[in-house]
Amino acid sequence: MFGISEIAIVLIIAIVVIGAKKLPDLVRSAGKSARILKAEARAMKEQEADGPGGPARPPQVIRGETLDRPDQ
């Protein structure tokens, strides 16, 4: 579908448009989002396998960054 040259061109354009300084943060947040999505999909699949009224498990905590809330 895509060759290495096309992917390289897209990456170079992304670096120019987004900026080299912000690109690592963007990739890091995309990785965290993918990890959360994968965990949620796994939890939904397990919940469907248990069926309605099956054993309820406590929610899993996904460790990540914590943000200070200004209202507290």
Description:
The chain has two helices and no strands. The chain is mainly α. It has a domain at 20-50. It is flat and about 50 Å long.
How far apart are the termini? 51 Å
Give the % helix: 55-70%
- Give the overall form: flat
CA gyration radius, whole angstroms? 19 Å
Structural class: mainly alpha
What is the number of helices? Answer: 2
Most strands sheet? none
Overall residue-averaged pLDDT value: 79
Strand and helix order = HH
Taking pLDDT < 50 over at least 5 consecutive residues as the criterion, the unreliable ranges are none
Query: In percent, how much strand structure appears in the residues?
Result: under 5%
* Annotation, overall tally of beta strands: 0
Briefly, what is this?
The chain has 72 residues and is mainly alpha-helical. The chain is built from 2 helices and no strands.
Write the layout of secondary structure elements.
Elements: H1 4-18, H2 23-50
Characteristics:
single chain; mainly alpha; flat
